[in-house]
Amino acid sequence: MANKKIVLLPKARKILVEVGENIKLARLRRKLSAEQVAERANIGRTTLYHIEKGDPGVSIGAYLQVMMVLRLGEDFLMLAKDDELGRKLQDAKLITKERAPKRNK
């Protein structure tokens, strides 16, 4: 199976680059070397480099492993947590049943 090049829209690319920068800053704040984080996450240093650059070709599992090493795993749970648009779309399609008329006694 040939590797496909992932093409992102500019806005998505910008978000991924920012995530990578945030991961790198978190690593530096913890005073951990790239080698330490890569070893603990069971990935290569090159993969960590790609993560910190926001490379879309790196698996989401590798991103999660690095975040777990940095103790940011709970942040990963925040992804798509508040789906405001999805809830609005769902609410718009909800059908309310009409009440039956009251019976006269």
From TrEMBL:
<dbReference type="InterPro" id="IPR010982">
    <property type="entry name" value="Lambda_DNA-bd_dom_sf"/>
</dbReference>
<feature type="domain" description="HTH cro/C1-type">
    <location>
        <begin position="23"/>
        <end position="54"/>
    </location>
</feature>
<dbReference type="InterPro" id="IPR001387">
    <property type="entry name" value="Cro/C1-type_HTH"/>
</dbReference>
<dbReference type="GO" id="GO:0003677">
    <property type="term" value="F:DNA binding"/>
</dbReference>
<protein>
    <submittedName>
        <fullName>Transcriptional regulator</fullName>
    </submittedName>
</protein>
<dbReference type="Pfam" id="PF13560">
    <property type="entry name" value="HTH_31"/>
</dbReference>
